[in-house]
DUF2200 domain-containing protein (Roseivirga pacifica), 121 residues
Amino acid sequence: MTTTPAHDAKIAKMTFASVYPHYVTKVEKKGRTKEELHTVITWLTGFDDAKIQNLIDEKVTFADFFKQATLHPNAPLIKGTICGYRIEEIETPLTQQVRYLDKLVDELAKGRKMEKILREA
């Protein structure tokens, strides 16, 4: 399934800071913690807590966010559907990376075990 150029451009221009509070709210509503959210973000991107906060403060776009990230080698193991798109079929790399993050946050909120979320087991 391909995304449209307009959809990809919209995602690229979104700021991480605008979405981050929604991630926090989503996981905390389901009994998970901000620390667990940061564990997931760190696993995917290589960013530590200070870098995550810096990216929020700088209001970086998702394009810049993932340009600075070192994607985990197991990121391609993130599969499934999110926002109506099958992640492994998304052809635009940036859009796929953002959906990786969305899927990890979703799995965290759904109570999945951290080892499974981080593709360790």
In short: The helical segments are 5-13, 16-29, 34-45, 49-57, 62-68, 93-109, 114-117. The longest strand covers residues 81-82. The chain has a mean pLDDT of 95. Residues 24 and 34 are 6 Å apart (CA to CA).
